[in-house]
Design brief:
nine-stranded mixed β-sheet; 10 helices; 361 residues; alpha/beta; 11 strands; homodimer
């Protein structure tokens, strides 16, 4: 062959995926992601002071929403979108018109695999989302759909087709995602272990979903990806992604959708202030002792076949059962309803019935 | 320091662990394991022709049982121990007087980690068994008790003590543990991926337990580690470890005991004949489609607080529900009872009540 083509190959799902970034600062971190993100569309959700100008490096295709935009677009329903907290990112999920979302924090950089090669996190998320999940039985060699792997002896053949994957949860090298108490106790701990695996979280099992490096199929699960009421005027922070993860997992288990965790890694550059975090978290730390049993025992009725109807049902259960824990959950339950109403307003194609992970036409 | 001590350090649990090896051949494979096994006691279960002499390399401390020994020791109850199948290994669990068992196949060799260092599989199993399990909530950074890792943000603090670990399931590099159909379809597939992780199998989730590289706490779960009726005179083979794994997991979930999988790896040297395997497996391949739902929905009554009482209760459910699948399961259910009776005869210190994973004194 004479000459090597300089044309970059079209990246996977180029026109079907939006990258959602919540931020309060200039997006210099995008420079490092340029080779991987430049051909995708970005949705930037500016938190805090809307008069501040956020600089985005040249050459990126983006739309940016600040608080004024959110208020204008949602009107009174803007109350469901958090302010001064990265929970505001879920506004980006709502205004996207794409099938897939990848969301990443602006203190996350490109990690290297053990061979020293830059990890294309987005590509791995897409692989995770485009291959099935296996939540009904555990495969000891991890993701059976990966090259060089398969289902092991004793894995029922009837379960080998798997089910559609709704969520791909990626991990972090360097600064691990610890709570404030653990940060305080282990200020120097860094995650240096590259675990070369992707696995399905089994049905009926909850996990702590972190929003730092996360992708999902918006068509399958979007309306459940609400990051709650956090930050300004709220008694709690840093539980936005956790809340979304617990709600989402209960609904995925009910609808027959899969959730994966593991690869890809990003490089998390900076630990947030543990003292500030403790102030945000401390109510969550004791509330979650009641939230986890609540979500572990939550069941949804059979006639809830859309994500929206599941989510509304869950909001009722939150109000009925968690309202006793604190009045905050009454407010949150109302905000969950507002969120779904706002979602449906901005996405008028309507609810889609999902049965065993398949979206009805 | 003048001079380096040549005295090897006392290995972990030296006097509390037996290594159980089922075999039909000379145990030359032990040469490679010498640095890791030499200070432990071996229980060799000789399968097949009892008149054959099995050679064990010099310097190992062992006891060896052939079929004549099994018949002599168990009398009529010897019927529960399989013949001409590696399922016979469970006889070794029964005659052991130690707290822990490690069992390994004689075609398994020492694997190397990615840095080229020999992996001390037994040491890793012991670490797995001596640290708690976390089956009630998934930790995304895998084993939270490992150096350099911890529970991540959002992990309930009340669950961070974990529960006692009953079983450690190790994996295999080189020849993966595939069933006959997968072996036939992918004859050249080799497992080259070293996944540097140990994780707890969540509560309520079943997995395919392989007997090739397996350790367990005999005091906590021993009587549930029955490898069933396989091989000579039976309609099925190669489901011995699977059967044990399903029964064991249901009982661990009931009693509050943990099961881990992942590290350590061994090097599995030789694929067994897929045509022979297919003959052994084919009934299992369709039976397991009914076995998995049976075990997934099996529940044990609260008053079953010993492994023995759980196992007897499970045998009744097998008889009542799986007897319809095939008469074989009626025979197997009876053998389960015989197994527990034989276990109690050889281990007269009696049943131990386990509540939330704690053995009552």
């Amino acid at each position: 062959m004479a000459g090597v083509s300089k044309v970059a190959p079209t990246p996977l799902l180029k026109d079907e995926l939006d990258i959602v970034i919540p931020t309060i600062r200039n997006l210099d971190f995008l420079e490092m992601w340029r080779p991987f993100f430049e051909q995708y569309h970005l949705i930037i959700v500016q938190d805090g002071d809307p008069s501040k100008v956020i600089k985005v490096p040249e050459g990126f295709d983006y739309e940016l929403y600040n608080r004024n935009d959110i208020n204008r677009i949602l009107g009174p329903k803007a109350s469901c979108i958090s302010f001064k907290d990265s929970a505001c990112r879920c506004f980006g999920y709502m205004v996207s018109k794409k099938k897939y979302i990848f969301t990443i924090d602006d203190d996350c950089f490109v990690a290297k695999d053990p061979s020293g090669k830059d990890i294309n996190a987005l590509e791995q998320h897409i692989k995770n989302l485009l291959t099935p999940s296996t939540p009904f039985f555990f495969n000891t060699l991890y993701d059976p759909y990966r090259e060089g792997a398969d289902f092991v002896r004793g894995y029922p053949f009837s379960l080998r087709e798997g089910i559609p994957t709704a969520v791909s949860h990626g991990l972090w090298l360097n600064i691990p995602d610890y709570d404030a108490p653990t940060q305080l106790v282990k200020p120097l701990e860094r995650n240096t272990r590259f675990v070369d695996a992707v696995l399905t979280i089994p049905k009926g099992t909850l996990f702590p979903m972190c929003g730092m490096n996360l992708a999902f199929n918006r068509e399958l699960i979007g309306p459940a990806m609400y990051f709650g009421l956090m930050g300004d005027g709220q008694p709690i922070g840093r539980y936005d992604d956790m809340w979304a993860g617990w709600c989402m997992k209960v609904i995925c288990d009910h609808l027959g959708l899969g959730v994966k965790t593991g690869l890809p890694y990003i490089w998390h550059s900076k630990a947030s202030n543990p003292f500030v975090n403790l102030k945000k978290e401390y109510k969550g730390i004791y509330w979650q002792e009641e939230l986890i049993p609540f979500f572990q025992s939550a069941t949804l009725p059979k006639d809830c076949t859309t994500v929206q109807s599941c989510y509304i049902e869950l909001s009722k259960q939150v109000k009925a059962k968690l309202g006793k824990v604190d009045d905050y959950f009454l407010k949150l339950a109302d905000a969950m309803v507002t969120w779904v109403e706002a979602w449906d307003e901005l996405n008028p194609s309507g609810e889609k019935s999902v049965e065993n992970g398949v979206v009805a036409k």
